[in-house]
Amino acid sequence: MQPPGLVKRFNGNRRFDFNSRESTAVQGRIRAAIISIMRRGKFITFEGLDGTGKSTQMRKLARALRAAGYKVVETREPGGTATGEKIRRVLLDSATQGLSPQAEMALMFAARAQHIAEVILPALERGEIVLCDRFTDSTEAYQGYGRRLGSQAVLSLHKLLGGNLQPDLTVLLDSDPRMSLGRARRRNQQASRTKQTSLKKHAGDENRFEQENRAFFARVREGYDAIAVREPHRVIKVDASGTPRSTHRRIMKAIATAVNLSSHTR
Ligand code: TYD
To answer: Distance between CA atoms of 72 and 128, rounded to whole angstroms?
Structure first.
């Protein structure tokens, strides 16, 4: 049985309010428990440095799962909702200057809270498989380690604003940072050139993070490694330095052993 009142509360409807004296921490734990009881679908996230081929691999996995008869939702962060995509533009546009690390982290969580309420939880409740390009591990790696805000701040905010929703499986794509970042930079420059020559002259670019230096990305990678060591039951690290096809094969193997999909709505 679903507890509709509590779900609604998570979505921002205060009709079924908790006791106001209840501490935030307790509310967070209750919400997390409810989410885990309600979830019938599977939540799979893709993580890694920019340019590791996450989007390509996610598309390939979605195609394979659909061919096997599963219902699949493909989404991404920051973004995934109309509001989230607006926030994404602010976050990724290199014209956004002087954004404080704290404001950056808050915007990531604002987009995520909306994404969870509007897209992820409803799909999981319908029993579907949600594939998400980046989730809270990105915030821990980029803001927690990259911007040095610390893991604790990220994990606490995730409890408060993200219901502590945890993926069933996280595919962490690993490749040489110089190679992947070079690829991401070339891709984004190409995309902004296309925008400049098209009618979307003021559409902005997605280069803000790629402009960070090597030390920043070394910290991000260190963050991902720490998460993988801390949560080996959830995070599988996949070598993405080969061809997209060989990486896809590795991912399919890992998915088959790590997540029992057979009981899902086909
Ligand atoms: P995106 O285009 O999704 O990544 P990629 O270049 O790998 O395809 O860009 C999203 C950027 O936002 C990426 O540089 C990582 C950053 N990011 C954070 O810093 N924190 C977060 O919580 C998320 C979700 C993304």
So the answer is: 6
Assess whether the C-beta atom of 54 lies below 6 angstroms from ligand 1: yes
Whether ligand 1 lies within 6 angstroms of the CB of 142 is answered as yes
Question: Ligand 1 within 6 A of 209 CB?
Answer: yes
pLDDT in tens, 58-116: 999 999 999 999 999 999 999 999 999 999 999 999 999 999 999 999 999 999 999 99
Domains of the chain: 1-38 (no CATH), 42-258 (3.40.50.300)
Structure tokens at 73: 């939702």
Output the CA 53–ligand 1 centroid distance in Å: 12
Q: Please check whether residue 103 is in contact with residue 157, taking contact to mean a CB–CB distance below 8 angstroms.
A: no
pLDDT single digits (tens) 163-185:
999 999 999 999 888 888 888 88
List the single range of 4-13, 23-32, 85-94, 191-200 with lowest mean pLDDT.
4-13
Written as six digits, the tokens of 125 are 């409740």
* Residue 107 to residue 87: CA distance in whole angstroms: 7
